[in-house]
Amino acid sequence: MTNLEKYNNILKRDLKATDDELNDETLVYNRYPRWDSVTHMDMVSDLEENFGVEFDTLDITGFSKYSLGIEILKKLGVQF
Amino acid sequence: MIFSLENKNPDKTALLSDTGLAVTYGELCRFPEEMKCHVKERKLAFCMCENSPGAVAGYIGFIENKTVPLMLDAGTGEIQIKNFLNTYRPDYIWAPLSKEQEFTALLMSAPVFNACEYSLWDLNKSGNNAKENEEDKSCELHPDLALLLATSGSTGSPKLVKLTMKNVESNAQAILEYLHIDENERPITSLPLQYTYGLSIVNSHLLAGATVLMTKSSYVQSGFWEFLEKEKATSFGGVPYTYQILKKMRVFRKDIPSIRYLTQAGGKLPKELQEEIGLWAEKFKKKFYVMYGQTEATARMAYLPAEKCLEKLGSMGIAIPGGRFYLIDEKGSETDGIGVTGELIYEGPNVFMGYANTKADLLTGDENHGRLETGDLAKRDEDGFYYIVGRKKRFIKMYGIRVSLDQCENILKEIYPEAEIICGGSDDNIKIYTTDENVSRSAPEKLADILKMSPKGFSGVYVEKIPRNSAGKIMYKELMKEEK
What we know:
The structure holds two protein chains of two kinds. By secondary structure, chain A is mostly helical. Chain A has one domain (3-75): Orthogonal Bundle (Non-ribosomal Peptide Synthetase Peptidyl Carrier Protein, Chain A). Helices cover 55% and strands 0% of the residues of chain A. Chain A contains four helices and no strands. Chain A has helices at residues 3-15, 37-51, 57-62, 66-75. In chain A, α1 (3-15) packs antiparallel against α2. By secondary structure, chain B is an alpha/beta fold. Chain B has a domain at 395-482: GMP Synthetase, Chain A, domain 3, CATH 3.30.300.30. In chain B, a hairpin with a 2-residue loop joins β6 and β7. In chain B, α6 crosses α7. The A-B interface holds A 29-30, 36-42, 44, 56-58, 60-62, 64 and B 216-222, 224-225, 241, 245, 248-251, 399, 453-454, 456.
């Protein structure tokens, strides 16, 4: 499984999203119905656990749409 | 006017949003007059809340015109809105401009008035509702009724708490006193406006003539922290889950310069976390207040003075100014011993009138006479500080929202009519005990989905049998031992 697939699977599971929703127009914090603060922190924990990284405050607050999670993981050294 | 708004500095900003919308005290005072020709006294309005100036202006406008607002989340789903509409048949709806299309479609009529990025619908003028409302036309709500709040955010129950003007104003005054709020304060909204705690923050600061900073962003978003920093917010509040997230975000490793104080309510904060935040507050010269309240007490009943935070870990403090606590035993007699557990009773001017489950319930008066049985079991220490021990009835808090374990069982019994299911657990952790192994695997996610909550807080526990006593009552302590 590639890291992109791993990332997509976590978001799909936590947000109950479908494949065609995996984009910046749909998966946006507060706009996508299930992306609230509770689910947000679940996703952060799952991403940290699965990729062996640690988000800092700015990473947590900056993760506000689909592609930004990938950008943050890249910054933390995960290859995409 | 409510909160003596007419005596504040009319040029001072009362409400400021992160989108740049500002409402001064002068404008806020004139707003009820603008609304007046569109609403009638003693009628019911749904105020669809978001953290924006329009929601607060509408709330003040309704109250001043003696129209009773029910505060609901603007994000409430269509099925739940319809449920509330059918149960309470409101006369007016006040909703954000961003939801105008949805409400116009739902109500089949156009709004009659717009202000502060909000719109007003008159349901007596709309096609499909006019007829149904015929019987309500002569219906006048009880003269003491000023405000309605929903009891549970997420279980979909339309049960409401009825509050009077005295409830709202006395509680705002008490909060202002014990938090030492003055007109220089700038709280930032971190909780929903329709939630009693979120509303109490707005109320007490309007009473003080302060400036409320309003944002729809949550504290897990950068927009919240940018707004806080730019506008030099002086305080915010949170439920235990909020503080758990803030800890995880490592917020308490450094100073938040403009913040003067933080408050916590909506469930019991773990002692370690209270200590961590208490130490942070001490280091950076802030105040941290652990508090206790319920919607049934308008909002607040107790607070732990900030200087006692580290000394009295685990305590929710003492009664607010104007209020009084005592404990009763199972027979209902007052108990007086130190460390003796009893049900916590509160008396004060902020105790609600009663519950409403139907529109007819909005016509009846005060049933409680200032006395509230909190349903919480508590004890008192030698200095008079109170500690919550547990809940008398089976309610727990999930992420700050009250959830009935009985209701969870009922939901699951509908899905799995054959299975034996008992719900238990603690705050933020619902356990589903069942004698069916398959159910124990699938039920947590199903229940979380129906309650619209993260499945992380739900777990299934497979047990061989549900232990019951001779009367057939479930022995919860034994049940927890079954768990391996």
